[in-house]
Amino acid sequence: MGDLLQPTHLMVIAVVALVLFGGRKLPELGKGLGEGLRGFKEGIKGVTEEVKSADPVVAPKPEESVKS
After folding, report:
1. What does the radius of gyration of the chain's CA atoms come to, in whole angstroms?
2. What number of other Cβ atoms are within 10 A of residue 17's Cβ?
């Protein structure tokens, strides 16, 4: 099995999308997809910044048991 996304595969996918959605809907779908990806990237960026800026939690050392 060869590469999954060869140029001919991408052309077939583009033609199928054009037939299914029509020429007028494709720009709207692309815009919606772009906005969704942008929002997702901003959300991930916010989460990673919170993790980096958070103070590390240091667990206390367990006390050594005293043997009699």
Report:
1. 26
2. 14
